[in-house]
Amino acid sequence: MTWTMPESEKAYHQELDDENINPLWVMHANPPERPKLAPHVWRWDKMRELAIQAGALESLKGQGFRRALTMRNPGLKSPMAGATKTMSAAVQIVWPGEIAEAHRHTAAAIRFVIEGEGAFTVQEGERFRMQEGDLVLSPSWAWHDHNNPTDKPVIWLDCLDAPLVGYLDAMFQEPFPEDVQPVTKPVGFTNASIGNGLMRPNLGDVHGGALPLTYRWDEAYGALLGYGEEDPFDGVMMEYANPVTGGHSMPTLALKLQRLAPGSHTDAHRHTSSVVYHVAKGEGYSIIDGKQLEWTKGDTFVLPSWALHEHGTDSSEDAVLFSMSDLPVIEAMGLYREEEGKRQEVIGAIG
Ligand code: GTQ
Ligand code: FE2
Questions:
Q1: I need a surface site. Which of 108, 231, 292, 344 has the fewest CB within 10 A?
Q2: Cβ atoms within 10 Å, residue 79
Q3: Could you tell me if the CB of 142 is within 6 A of ligand 1?
Q4: In sequence order, what are the residues at sequence separation of 6 or more whose Cβ sits closer than 8 angstroms to the Cβ of residue 338?
């Protein structure tokens, strides 16, 4: 079908425009350009260098701000863009001796620790260890503040569903009345309250909603090693499950960990849901729509929805990718689809 506007209909179409109406036939004939999510990598060596500088900025000293560097997807061409259309990602540094003030918001967050030892986040009155490779969930509306009493910076990856929550006009935020919240529960309380998902408490309400849980690196990585069953497209992959429902990590986010064996190379596929990957261990590459992206520990990169991709490593060490996607939202809307592809010929590079 083709359509061109005859001279005789110009006045009518102008009137539609004046009335803030878009006729669908014009949209079909001349589709406006939609911002397209770009596959993109933020390299750890650069992010770390910039984070250390952020940590030292005098203007932020003692203010309780979050020294977070938010990754803006260059394909979205907006100063407000997140890493993807639905998810934001940032590298956050908490400087020695500093705190990031207690607050809560409707956007859900996760932290994956990249560097540091001895710092902690307090959520709902419970301290959470922030050690390399640990994952900590900050559910929607949970109070949280960050504390670094050590003499070295702590650096982690933040990921939030903030762009989606903002799009839905459901963003609320409030400060806690004090800089930091009182610690009222023992370390490990929330994880223990559900017996790590294997035991059900006799006391209290087991609701299956998101909890401020932590998944330690040695347990998560150990689970991959213990399981060992390879998915043709993803190596050995497991999700950080909601231990009560067995379902996705959070209502809006699916958090996964995958291990690529030394020298392995996966088959190619594509699927709806966009993904933010973070290299937790080792080095390797992904081929995304024919373009090779070499990655190494600490790098963060984006896979757009429906982009054909495969992963591999030539290293003698295994490689582990942590990832976050909007899969739960895609599934809730009945939009998940997946297609197998052929191993790709590399025709370019990313980053
Ligand atoms: O640490 O609470 O990257 O509220 C963005 C928003 C981190 C946080 C971010 C936040 C936080
Ligand atoms: Fe926050």
A1: 231
A2: 6
A3: no
A4: 269, 270, 271, 272
- C-beta of residue 106 within 8 angstroms of C-beta of residue 90: no
CA of 9 to the centre of ligand 1 (A): 52
Radius of gyration (C-alpha) of the chain in whole angstroms = 22
**Of the bound ligands, which one is closest to the alpha carbon of residue 141?**
2
What is the whole-number distance in angstroms between the Cα of residue 104 and the centre of ligand 2? 6
By C-alpha distance, which of 148, 126, 149, 147 is closest to 137? 126
**How many angstroms separate the CA atoms of 64 and 146, rounded?**
9
| 28 and 3 Cβ atoms separated by less than 8 Å | yes
Q: Which of 92, 155, 253 to mutate to test the pocket of ligand 1 (most atoms within 8 A of CB)?
A: 92
pLDDT tens for 153-207 read 999 999 999 999 999 999 999 999 999 999 999 999 999 999 989 998 998 888 8
Q: Give the ligand with the smallest distance to the CA of 64.
A: 1
Report the atom number in ligand 1 closest to the C-alpha of 146: 1
Query: How does pLDDT run across 103-118, given as a tens digit for each residue?
Result: 999 999 999 999 999 9
Closest residue by CA, ligand 1 atom 10: 66
Tell me if 150 sits within 8 A of 197, measured CB to CB.
no
